[in-house]
Give the backbone structure.
Amino acid sequence: MLEKSTVDYDGVYKGNSVVFEAKSTTEGRFPLKLLKDHQLDYLISAEKHGVIAFVLIEFSKVRKYFYCPVSFINHYYVKSKEGGHKSIPLADFDIYAFEVDRGRVSLDYLAVVDQLQERKSS
């Protein structure tokens, strides 16, 4: 019997616990079905316990990558369960998520983690 996996990364960065799930889409929207219920639940629970939790999403056709706060994804997820749209348009990522550049590593999501941590401590 296969067990459900949690998320793609669970580790520590600069003394902070970090968890994230990475997804990719070829569409101009992110289909919420790509993120499994148990993965989102895990991310929400981790964030409630002070863990840096997020979803990294690649839009491969336009070569854009986003650091997505759990609250951003969960907002759309809850709406979808109430009969709303089953995907998130790319334009909403430009507004509510953080675009990730290629940098220190092939995809520099750590730069966003650093920025958000600096905001918290200010």
Notes: Helices lie at 37-48, 70-81, 90-96, 109-121. The longest strand covers residues 16-25.
